[in-house]
Design a protein that fits this description.
Elements (H helix, E strand, L loop, with lengths): L6 E5 L13 H11 L3 E8 L9 H8 L6 E9 L11 H7 L3 E5 L10 H17 L5 E2 L7 H6 L13 H14 L2 E5 H5 L6 H15 L4 E5 L11 H10 L31
Parallel strand pairs: 1-2, 2-3, 3-4, 4-5, 5-6, 6-7
Bound molecules: zinc ion (2 copies).
Length: 272
Amino acid sequence: MTDIPRYDFHIHTKYLGCADGTMEVPAIARECEQLGVRSLGITDHLNSLDRLPLHKPIRQDIEALDTEIAIYFGVELNFLTVDGGFAYSAEIKEQYGFQFAIGGIHNSYLNTYDLKKIVDIQHRHHLRTCREALVDVLVHPYWFHKVEFTGKGWPWFDSMQAVPESYARELGQVAKETGTAIEINATANLENKDYSDRFVKEYIDFLAAVAAEGACFALGSDAHNIGRLQAIRAAWQVAAQLGLSAERIWRPSSAPAMGGKTKGHFGSPCAP
Ligand SMILES: [Zn+2]
Ligand SMILES: [Zn+2]
């Protein structure tokens, strides 16, 4: 898998209270150096506007780093309600200096179990996310929080057979049209203890159907603990397995906030 760029564009920190205390920016940079990551993005959650100031120290810590790795300052968005938008705008991007945004759906938005409806709502939001101009990457398609399912007394989402191949194909087409990258997420989808080996195999088949439509992909560990950053290797491995060329691996279009080669050509290879 020598051709797959060693990127990780989905990493959480302790600053928003989601990741644990090991996830400080300098420690993340050191660990990623050890793992051979060449470019990374910090992408903490922005689930409501009042949380915005918590992102400021992340940017400051990135700018204080001394590293060879190209480091970007990003953000992860979530839908505020089932048909609501994201807590984000061009003004916020500008004001806080976010260099890219990843986003997606994090809930079933249902109170009674209906597998077809669950899948349909996810699919609809995947397409909406792709069509949102300020979002560069659709995160972890068809990931669910197991606690939501057990808490509601529902059977677990343990098979990708519930997702029609036509949905995978439409997602790939819309992603390609809009220049949105589809995430290959290591800890949510590939190395999540809540999923069986069979599920993961089905999941890779789903990604292959998306890939067949020519979409680009983003690579992310989604690590919330320093020891989990190494899971990014699973995303690199799957990208290689899918036969993706380096031009189909997304990266931000601007120069990094810190590190990397500051001269040279930037620009995403995945523009529509
Ligand atoms: Zn997420
Ligand atoms: Zn995340």
